[in-house]
């Protein structure tokens, strides 16, 4: 069952991507998942959204480090290919790309995960700051093909005050 994000967000899925049924997800911490319509060698590229309310003083880099360590529990080797802090002081963000090998659907696959960590202020409670993680997971062969669609998706994410867009 999907979890609720600590702050409401709105977003636009890339054309052709389909929301995944909650029972199809194998990560109980995921609030939303979507899948690419064309699998690569049996693996379906996916976008997931999760998040939380980090403790005071915890940085996005520390949260990204913890995510890397969790991935090591079922994948190896996990390599941080790229990491960069982006955004502004008022709206910090961090991007990270990981490559790893893992068993998915009964076969070992070379995968790449692009992660974007956003620090968002709740539009209803400006004292509340949440972390939202957006992740694209794809085969190494398909990653570059779907990366631009993921970047468009990331650009569409915004706080949602419930007033409609």
Explained architecture:
The chain is built from 2 helices and 9 strands. The chain is of the alpha+beta class. The protein has one domain: Protein Transport Mog1p, Chain A. The strands form 2 sheets. It has a 7-stranded antiparallel beta sheet, with helices on both faces. It has a two-stranded antiparallel sheet with strand order 1-9. It starts with 8 loop residues before the first strand and ends in a 6-residue tail after the last strand.
CATH class: Alpha Beta
C-alpha-based Rg, rounded: 16 Å
Strand order of the largest sheet: 2-3-4-8-7-6-5
Alpha-carbon distance between the two ends = 27 Å
Number of strands: 9
Can you say what the CATH homologous superfamily is?
Answer: Mog1/PsbP, alpha/beta/alpha sandwich
How many discrete domains?
1
Structural class call reads alpha+beta
Number of helices: 2
Brief summary:
This protein has 165 residues and is α+β, with helices and mostly antiparallel strands.
């Amino acid at each position: 069952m999907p979890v609720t994000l600590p702050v409401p967000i709105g977003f636009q899925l890339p054309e052709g991507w389909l929301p995944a049924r909650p029972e199809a997800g194998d990560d109980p911490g995921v609030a939303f998942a979507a899948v690419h319509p064309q699998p690569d060698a049996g693996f379906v590229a996916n976008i997931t959204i999760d998040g939380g309310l980090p403790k005071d003083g915890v940085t996005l880099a520390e949260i990204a480090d913890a995510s890397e360590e969790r991935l090591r529990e079922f994948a190896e080797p996990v390599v941080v290919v790229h990491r960069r802090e982006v955004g502004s002081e008022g709206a910090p963000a961090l991007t990270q790309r990981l490559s790893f090998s893992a068993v998915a659907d009964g076969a070992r696959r070379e995968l790449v995960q692009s992660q974007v960590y956003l620090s968002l202020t709740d539009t209803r409670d400006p004292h509340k700051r949440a972390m939202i993680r957006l992740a694209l997971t794809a085969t190494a062969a398909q990653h570059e093909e779907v990366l631009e669609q993921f970047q468009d998706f990331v650009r569409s994410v915004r706080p949602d005050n419930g007033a409609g867009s």
